[in-house]
Amino acid sequence: MSKVTVDYTDYFSGMIKRMREDGLLMVTSSADGKPNVMTIGWGTVGILWSLPVFVVLVRPTRYTYSRLEEVDEFTVNVPSKELAKAVLHCGTVSGRDNDKFKDMGFTAVQGKMVKAPIIEECIMHYECRVVHENDVIPEALEKTIINDAYPQGDFHRIYYGQILATYADENALQKLKS
Amino acid sequence: MSKVTVDYTDYFSGMIKRMREDGLLMVTSSADGKPNVMTIGWGTVGILWSLPVFVVLVRPTRYTYSRLEEVDEFTVNVPSKELAKAVLHCGTVSGRDNDKFKDMGFTAVQGKMVKAPIIEECIMHYECRVVHENDVIPEALEKTIINDAYPQGDFHRIYYGQILATYADENALQKLKS
Questions:
Q1: From the candidates A20, A24, A49, A57, which should be mutated to test the interface with B, based on the most B CB atoms within 10 A?
Q2: How confident is the model over B76-88, as pLDDT tens digits?
Q3: What is the pLDDT of residue A172?
Q4: How many CB atoms neighbour CB B129 within 10 A?
Q5: CB atoms closer than 10 angstroms to residue A56
Q6: Which chain B positions have a beta carbon within 8 Å of A53's beta carbon?
């Protein structure tokens, strides 16, 4: 499938719908180039410090967290509905013990601007470089959210990724709508 | 102009374009119901903690900051290009010394879900309630951003607003494109 450059604001409704329904696939790289993939259900897109950004949340207990400390770059990949099982798998097993790229038959294609690869089988891709990180502060968080999202008290680190490149399948709009 | 309910992901490209070009108008309310408006050039939209959110940045030196400590609700209003001068004005004078609603001839219409009003003359409106706040951490921020955005060292507080209602002019798409 040939990929074309798009604006980072394109296909926003479709991307959010996929995030809400199954999740998106966030890919990191270790220093020696081994990719790992994690499912994310939460994130925001917009402008911060005059830069286009994709903001993602990662719990400190996650393998992805330790990898981001190593290489502060990531890609966000928007899967089609057909990949729902793979997305679920990537959200339930850890990359510490599993090669999820291999398990899922995902093709890692070198990022254009970052060390982390994209997943070729996905519809749309954002390449990001972390320009800021801070933490969810329990004392400043709505009580119902603490109960619903943090029963284990493992509050997220928030990563602010400057979007360096965005591209998608040529028929992305159609695929996102299906 | 009659307003219709829209999805919070609708018109995203147009909203971001207006934010980048002139800025959006963020409205807060004091405890006694007096509205104030501030221009924002930075913000993100998406899903956090399974909630639709509009994330905005406010410097602690701003009048809006003290007001959010009073009433933790706000609206974000997307102005047309015709309002460019008003948006500039709202970004350069403080509500401490000026009634910007009156100065600009803005019509404050009561929010449906929050105490802060919307600006009727704008194209699109998000009503938000703060569910979390944290701060930009200088030590974890890209050096070039510190130099460009914080020469005075007044690092932003980040407000995470759960979007409770989104609505727009019936011809919003056309107005955002013009």
A1: A49
A2: 999 999 999 999 9
A3: 96
A4: 19
A5: 26
A6: 44
Closest by Cβ to A45, choosing from B44, B136, B142: B44
Q: Among candidates A42, A78, A14, which has minimal Cα distance to B10?
A: A14
Which of B49, B55, B137 is opposite residue A134, by nearest beta carbon?
B137
| Cα separation, A53 vs B55, whole angstroms | 12
Q: What is the pTM (predicted TM-score) of this model?
A: 0.97
B43 contacts on A by Cβ (under 8 Å): 46-48
Indicate the average pLDDT of chain B.
Answer: 95
A153 residue type, one letter: G
Interface check A7 vs B, CB under 8 A: yes
CATH of domain A3-177: 2.30.110.10
Beta carbons of B42 and A19 less than 8 Å apart? no
Structural domain boundaries in chain B: 3-177
**Interface contact B46-A43, CB threshold 8 A:** yes
Asked if residue A112 lies in contact with residue B126, where contact means CB atoms within 8 angstroms, the answer is: no
Q: Scanning every residue of chain A, which has its alpha carbon at the shortest distance from the alpha carbon of B133?
A: A140
Q: What is the pLDDT of residue A152?
A: 95
Find residue A134's DSSP bridge partners.
A158
Structure confidence by residue, pLDDT tens digits, A126-173 = 999 999 999 999 999 999 999 999 999 999 999 999 999 999 999 999
